[in-house]
Amino acid sequence: MVEEVDGVVDDAFNCRDLHNPYLEESDDSFPSDHPRRQAQVTSLDVIAYDQIGPDDALRRLYESDALLRFIQDILGGNRLYRMADPMAALTVNVMKEGHNHGWHFDESLVTTTIMLQKPEEGGEFQYVADLRGEAWDDYEALGKVLAGDESQVMTLGVAPGTMLLFAGYYQLHRVSPVKGETTRYVSTLCYKDRPGVCNSPEVQQLFYGRTATA
Ligand SMILES: O=C(O)CCC(=O)C(=O)O
Ligand SMILES: [Fe+2]
Q1: Does residue 213 fall inside a structural domain?
Q2: Closest CA to 189 of 118, 93, 54, 123
Q3: Over the stretch 1-27, which tens digit does the pLDDT of each residue have?
């Protein structure tokens, strides 16, 4: 898989985004020191689904029903569908020296990733639990994390081959800045609870630098 990604990595789109931890733009209805107004920087290169060859191992894995059922079983048995978005359904996040993914909550309840290549240093998947629930946000604790307090930060031991199923909607997480020569490759495999789901053209433009329909 790494060799296959190496073959298309030069065509990856450089995505640079400023967002608050909720992946929104700063909300000026909140006071200036509020977490909803704290900008996080995300800078990485993205390889989209339609840039991955039809016979590539990563694509065959994502398109296999065995994997779909496996993830469905882990998540409690509710029917899942591969995302219909021609770019977002399967991606490889490419992070070189200095790239990082700022603190955020995902839009999806659960995200599935597979690490393919690990950098020499940094590029660690870190999270802080219990900052958000169904009807509440702990803005005070969130503000501390955004201000640099690392006392509650947990780091997951992820290695090449690790598949991570992560409840990213409720758990604040980030990828720390990558250091060294070796590029970090992490693939994101998107599943939805209904068929036919695509991202908006705005989100496609931001992450892939173009739009496409299914
Ligand atoms: O690269 C990773 O390990 C996680 C990426 C992530 O949080 C995301 O794509 O939302
Ligand atoms: Fe995320």
Answers
A1: no
A2: 93
A3: 999 999 999 999 999 989 899 988 888
